[in-house]
Fold this sequence. Notes:
The protein contains 15 helices and 4 strands. By secondary structure, the chain is mainly alpha-helical. The chain has helices spanning about 5-25, 30-55, 65-80, 85-110, 115-135, 135-140, 165-185, 190-200, 200-205, 210-235, 245-260, 265-285, 290-305, 305-320, 345; strands at about 145, 150-155, 155-160, 240.
Amino acid sequence: MTAAGISRAAVVVLLAALIAVPLVLPMFGSSFWIDIVAEILIWSLLAASVNLLLGYVGLLSFGQALYFGVGMYGAALSVIHWGVGFWGGLAVGVVAAMVMAAIAGSVAVRLTWHYFAIITVVFSLILYFAAMSAKPLTGGDDGISFSAQSVLTLGGTKFTLADQSVQYYTILLVVAFCYALFALVVRSPLGVRFMAVRENDRRAALVGINVYLTRYTAFVLAGALAGASGALFAFFGRYASASYMFYHVSGEAVVWAIVGGAGSLLGPLFGTGLLIIFREIISAVWEHYLFAVGAITVLVVMFAPRGLAGAWSDLLDVMTRGKPPANVPPSSPSAAPGLPKRAADTTSGG
């Protein structure tokens, strides 16, 4: 079997395992872990928004918490004040995040490297303090809460988020849909332009690619992913708080994306899953569990610089070719600091 065939089979197995979570875990008295897996799915979308910018366009953003928070408040406030329900709240959250990303991105994508990273933090901090100050509307640190929403009504039976299984499958459906759209985008001509800009923006401009528009499009799409994550998180906890708009949330998403493998489709899911599961296990036995989480992060970066997805890709090379993968030559564009290996190589790992 080829490496691509093994990867496709692994994705099918992963999807089957995710579908089986609410059916299998209760048999072992582990219903708590259903919510943990749901949380991993939600946070992986935020990491995917970082991955879209860093892994495919070469822009490191520390401001994705801003769009996460806007999506969260968009969903919560629309449910509270307009009574729109789950699907309407999700749509409002995503659109609000895209509008905010369109406004911030018109300025941010004119910059690159550390200048871009700094301005994304600045925008995030501005909106964070604005949300904290608008306590009558946002609740500030205390946040605002709302009741569980109905997802579907069939034959007079309402399926609401108050049911753990309904909530889980709803989150899985939305997250799977977002990843499917992500896959379509990065494999489309637009995705090719993303990677061309990532590799060398000057050469991309010389062959007729509008570098500014390409980066701007990626920025808005990344905002949509972060907004979807924030809206889902609001419905998951029936709660929205300005504290989730602080830049440390963006920092966690960057770590998840890098550990999972920037420039790979499912890398953010792998990185988020590893670190959140590890955190839950270690925190039960050790108060200073963040030291262990940090150690795991450092080890992955040291011994798997392309993340878990890159390590999986290397393993497939060994399995299918019978020899270790060749080292990346220093002159290769993918060896540039801060840039991942080409997506064509890493997507085989997810």
